[in-house]
Amino acid sequence: MEIVGVDGLDAAQFERFFRLRDEVRRAEQEFPAGLGLEEARVLFTGDHTDTRSDGLGLVDGDEWLGMAWLDWWLLENTDVVDVELAVSPQYRRRGVGTRLLEAVKERALAEGRRRFTTTVVADAASGESSGTAFAEAHGFVRKHTELHQVLELPLGDAAIDALDRVVDGYKIVQWREHTPDEWVGEMADALSAMSRDVPRGELDVELQRWTPERVRETEARRIAQGRFCHTTVAVDGDGRLAAYTQMGGATKDPSRLYQFDTFVRPEHRGNRLGMAVKVPNLRSLQAGLDRPSVLHTWNAPENAPMIAVNEHLGFRPVDQRVNLQLDL
């Protein structure tokens, strides 16, 4: 058995690496979520200013026993490596995960990183799984949990219309892949505010600092990945962006869709702006669907108002996403 590096440039190798990860996810999760093959390859092979991704595999000849996906943050959290491990079911309890983790530690320390973060899926009620057991047995400490909810689409037009909310004093503005130039500064500021505001539990991570340039780079990367995004914002009487929401997915696999951020500035809360932006955005998203789809979202349990909004829309819980950290 040997450890091999994965950088995405060898197409056949990268596909073996990716397929193992995807197969494990689909076997263990009722509603798996994640990037498609070509979306992932863009992360590995592209030149990005905010992050880079690569991986390791444990192989025995032509057989892939396990893999480690690594995200290296470049603007914030430059002492952190985000790691995801997946082990083929027939090779569980044979030390594959442990060997991969030791190899990742060696690489991280060599590059001056001092902390691992990881996210594992757990039961919706208990918060436990084989992933949490492995992580905690190897010294990872739970820091935060998010509830994973899903909504099966399409919803009927009458159901969406019944949820629609018009809030006096605000204008609804929508766009697709590119933030209009007149809104890119406001969007960057709102994304930074979202980073400061989102519940993080005890996670020890730096907040993201967004600029118009970072917004544009993120949009370009998303387009290169073959992904799409619907954005709806609420604008107050002074022309400021008071709330926003984004939803999207991959053109090649629109059966898995994602509710990205939904954010309402603190001074505008209590006006039901969450529903006011989510419903028209959902209507826009659904208008482009040609097959049944599942919309995924994640929220911290303490974010009760947003979970309540999702429940009102029809989302239901399916599992938990447990965030853990390990200091090296």
How many structural domains does the protein architecture include?
2
Uncertain parts = none
**Can you name the CATH architecture of the largest domain?**
3-Layer(aba) Sandwich
What is the CA-based Rg, rounded?
20 Å
- Beta-strand portion reads 25-35%
Main sheet summary? 12 strands, mixed
Q: Could you give the order of strands across the largest sheet?
A: 1-2-3-4-5-12-6-11-10-9-8-7
Structural class: alpha+beta
Write out the CATH superfamily name of the largest domain: Gcn5-related N-acetyltransferase (GNAT)
The CA-CA distance between the termini, in Å, is 25 Å
CATH class assignment of the largest domain? Alpha Beta
- In one word, what is the shape? globular
Could you give the count of β-strands? 12
- Overall mean pLDDT stands at 94
CATH fold-type name of the largest domain: Aminopeptidase
In N-to-C order, the SSE pattern is EHHEEEHEHEHEHHEEEHEHE
How much helix, percentage-wise, in residues? 25-40%
Our count of helices gives 9
Provide an overview of this structure.
With 328 residues, the chain is an alpha+beta fold. It has two domains: 2-113, Gcn5-related N-acetyltransferase (GNAT) (Aminopeptidase, 3-Layer(aba) Sandwich); 150-319, Gcn5-related N-acetyltransferase (GNAT) (Aminopeptidase, 3-Layer(aba) Sandwich), CATH 3.40.630. The protein is built from nine helices and twelve strands. It has helices spanning 11-28, 37-45, 96-110, 130-137, 157-163, 181-197, 212-224, 273-287, 304-313, and strands at 2-6, 51-60, 63-73, 80-87, 115-123, 141-153, 171-175, 227-235, 241-250, 253-264, 293-299, 316-327. Strand 10 (253-264), helix 8 (273-287) and strand 11 form a beta-alpha-beta unit. Helix 5 (157-163) packs antiparallel against helix 8 (273-287) and helix 6 packs across helix 7 (212-224). 31% of the residues are buried. The mean pLDDT is 94.
